[in-house]
Amino acid sequence: MQKRALIVIDIQNDYFPGGAWELHDMDVAVKNAAAILEATRHEQGLVIHIRHEFLNENPPFFAPGSEGAEIHHNVKPLGDEVVITKNAVNSFQDTNLKNVLDSNGITDVTMIGAMSHMCIDAAARAASDFGFSVTVVEDACASRDLEFGDKVVNANDVHAAYMSALSFAYANVVKTTEYLASE
């Protein structure tokens, strides 16, 4: 029997306008994420919030104890929802995420959040490698421009490239409307 969990990854204040590491279209992503979160809560599904904190001195963003490291108010956890703090890109690395999923009999995970090219990518690949069926709701995720050598890759292209790669072998990649229609 299939049992699904929603994993909300790094939707934290520093990624929003005025934050220390602003992402492209984060306001659109959080609107979609909030709708998915509401639907999951309505169905009484398991919700797991992941939040990132850097442990190194003078982090570029997500400094422990800072307002920027707090989960954004539009997707704030409810009292009974699991919140896992991670210190690495991959949500499974050095956390109890897999144990939480396994102890709840989860077979399928849905991932939303940020950044498409880092934490979403790493968590989706790891979840697939652990044997979970993975769905990524692409318009509830966000990215940013990247630089490689002398080339700037715009955020839309970064996001599309990572969603394309995930959809090839690691995840079912859908839009919010499609995901909500299947609930």
Automatic annotation (TrEMBL):
<keyword id="KW-0378">Hydrolase</keyword>
<dbReference type="InterPro" id="IPR050272">
    <property type="entry name" value="Isochorismatase-like_hydrls"/>
</dbReference>
<dbReference type="GO" id="GO:0016787">
    <property type="term" value="F:hydrolase activity"/>
</dbReference>
<feature type="domain" description="Isochorismatase-like">
    <location>
        <begin position="5"/>
        <end position="150"/>
    </location>
</feature>
<dbReference type="InterPro" id="IPR000868">
    <property type="entry name" value="Isochorismatase-like_dom"/>
</dbReference>
<protein>
    <submittedName>
        <fullName>Nicotinamidase-related amidase</fullName>
    </submittedName>
</protein>
<dbReference type="Pfam" id="PF00857">
    <property type="entry name" value="Isochorismatase"/>
</dbReference>
<dbReference type="InterPro" id="IPR036380">
    <property type="entry name" value="Isochorismatase-like_sf"/>
</dbReference>
